[in-house]
Amino acid sequence: LGDVYKRQKVSYNKRKRVFMTNKSIHSKLYHRIIARLRAKREEKGLSQYQLSQILNVPQPYVSRIETCERRIDILELMNICEALDISLIDFVREIDEDILPKFKASQKRQE
């Protein structure tokens, strides 16, 4: 798995102020976001099975998301946030204010 991280193509375009990624489920940024989502589930005291019951999906669906075997889209993220009783806007704001600054700093150190 370490080799996957070394091969990823993630860069920060300073002029456009955006991250350019290879859209891989193996990107470090994606892993950090999903880890935060999993932490939110655990904070609510829900198991993967319980979350899957709320979402009306099989438990392996939740497991594949949390192990980054499956990439989620915005509608799935919205449904998961709703099931966890958290605002999608607040979750995205948390990513913007906490995860992205740390990710940017780690990218600058690697340059």
Report on this structure.
It is globular, with a radius of gyration of 15 Å. By secondary structure, the chain is mainly α. Helix content is 64%, strand content 5%. The two termini are 21 Å apart. The protein has six helices and two strands.
Strand order of the largest sheet: 1-2
Q: What composes the largest sheet? A: 2 strands, antiparallel
The coarse silhouette is: globular
Unreliable stretches: 1-10
Radius of gyration, in Å, reads 15 Å
The string of secondary-structure elements, in order, is: HEEHHHHH
Number of helices: 6
Attribute tags:
111 residues; mainly alpha; disordered N terminus
In short:
With 111 residues, the chain is mostly helical. It is built from 6 helices and 2 strands; from the N terminus they run αββααααα.
Walk me through the topology.
Elements: H1 2-7, E1 11-13, E2 18-20, H2 28-43, H3 48-55, H4 59-66, H5 74-83, H6 88-110
Antiparallel strand pairs: 1-2
Helix pairs in contact: 2-6, 3-4
